[in-house]
Amino acid sequence: MQIIHTNYELINILKPLKNIAFVPTMGNLHAGHLSLIQEAFKKTKYVVVSIFINPLQFNSNEDFKKYPRTLEEDLTMLKKIGVPFVFAPSESEMFDPLQTAQIHLPQIAYDLCGKFRPGHFEGVAAIVNKLFNVVQPEMAFFGKKDFQQLFLIKELVRQLDSPIKIIAVDTVRHEDGLARSSRNSLLNMGDRKKAPQLFQTLSSMKEKAIKKSLSFSEIEAFGTQSLNAAGWIVDYLTIRSSQSLESPVRDENQLVILGAATLGSVRLIDNIEFCIHD
Known about the structure:
It contains eleven helices and nine strands. By secondary structure, it is of the alpha/beta class. Strand 8 and strand 9 form a beta hairpin.
């Protein structure tokens, strides 16, 4: 396994290779990340995993500082599963102090998580685009847990005509339904036991939507009241089109329920895709 720290070195190592698969991460790797890497290995032997904690996508310095940093454990895990290339750049490698260029994202970037985390997706897009430029992959793998992020990266690639295929991978869950996330390690024991309530609430909302017993706004209110009553602080629970992330138009049946809520001091997100049949 080659561990690479500079753009120049990575570009030169990857230059002669074709059919490169890329898995960008912020480290603190778990089964969700491993599922992305496993899918990448199904396509090619040339898999690049990046580990970079992007300060641009955090809304507070405190949140950035407490994000889990487990580089040595991550490298051991990646070596064990045979990842050939790991890119672990420094902040100075990823940031030009004179940089003023920004990526203007579609309006949906300022709704949902973008509404509660101003600048978050601009920060994601800036670094992901830099990584794409350096790695030059044929394909890149992202998890469906970060559904809005996945949508925006697909749009970024489409609108910029980047020759990269974005491959979405299903959310990996613990046995109790909680979506795997690096932030789960920040939950205390009591909150970890309560954390599956988010997925349970989304599942209940899905059942009500399929039964058509309530309007979407009534279902959203039900979910919000349920989680708030259980001690969560809900940012949003909403039913959207899975194709546009906008409110569903009449008779639209490909839907996604998206949720973001804070338990204790940890903000968790999750979603469920589903289809309503006539």
